[in-house]
Amino acid sequence: MPHVERGMTVGLFGGSFNPPHQGHQLVAEIALRRLGLDQLWWMVTPGNPLKSHNDLAGLGERVELSRRMAPGPKVKITAFEAAHDLHYTAQTLAFVKLRNPGIHFVWIMGADNLRQFHKWQDWRAIAETFPIAVIDRPGSTLAYLSSKMAKAFSHARVDENHAALLPFLRAPAWTFIHGPRSSLSSSAIRSARATNKPARS
């Protein structure tokens, strides 16, 4: 787990990153800038319980590719979930909170995940552990209006003009941040590789 000092603001950006791409890089850059973060933990997970693992690259490979993609020294690439046998986001956030008192954390996720967020294990507990910043992704801009999570926690939504306050708010609190978007996706890249065609950005 990356080193932090009390009072820091830290974004938690988790995923299988199979493979990492410029869309992930863009989400990290937007989160760092709009939330005013001291660090962003790019957390490479052992796997994704909602996805098939048939084409999952090795953890070491995904970590190394993520290091090459990291946009600057504030982004810390880590795979601590594998070392601590953490398989679900709710488990990870509870673990992080327990181990890091005095740190202001924000969960970062792309808007494409918001549509299925209610399928994640203990999704309400996730929303009630740390504030959440949802970063816009192609085809998912309206997810902040239509998703089950957005409706369930509509009372806790923060205007994106006040996004920099999010790390200091008590959960549940979330915001949707618009900005530049990349149409790249890990699944499209894997499919393109399988057919020897370039993935479109």
From TrEMBL:
<keyword id="KW-0547">Nucleotide-binding</keyword>
<comment type="similarity">
    <text>Belongs to the NadD family.</text>
</comment>
<comment type="pathway">
    <text>Cofactor biosynthesis; NAD(+) biosynthesis; deamido-NAD(+) from nicotinate D-ribonucleotide: step 1/1.</text>
</comment>
<dbReference type="InterPro" id="IPR005248">
    <property type="entry name" value="NadD/NMNAT"/>
</dbReference>
<dbReference type="InterPro" id="IPR004821">
    <property type="entry name" value="Cyt_trans-like"/>
</dbReference>
<keyword id="KW-0067">ATP-binding</keyword>
<protein>
    <recommendedName>
        <fullName>Probable nicotinate-nucleotide adenylyltransferase</fullName>
        <ecNumber>2.7.7.18</ecNumber>
    </recommendedName>
</protein>
<dbReference type="GO" id="GO:0005524">
    <property type="term" value="F:ATP binding"/>
</dbReference>
<dbReference type="GO" id="GO:0004515">
    <property type="term" value="F:nicotinate-nucleotide adenylyltransferase activity"/>
</dbReference>
<keyword id="KW-0520">NAD</keyword>
<dbReference type="GO" id="GO:0009435">
    <property type="term" value="P:NAD+ biosynthetic process"/>
</dbReference>
<dbReference type="InterPro" id="IPR014729">
    <property type="entry name" value="Rossmann-like_a/b/a_fold"/>
</dbReference>
<comment type="function">
    <text>Catalyzes the reversible adenylation of nicotinate mononucleotide (NaMN) to nicotinic acid adenine dinucleotide (NaAD).</text>
</comment>
<keyword id="KW-0808">Transferase</keyword>
<dbReference type="Pfam" id="PF01467">
    <property type="entry name" value="CTP_transf_like"/>
</dbReference>
<feature type="domain" description="Cytidyltransferase-like">
    <location>
        <begin position="12"/>
        <end position="191"/>
    </location>
</feature>
<keyword id="KW-0662">Pyridine nucleotide biosynthesis</keyword>
<keyword id="KW-0548">Nucleotidyltransferase</keyword>
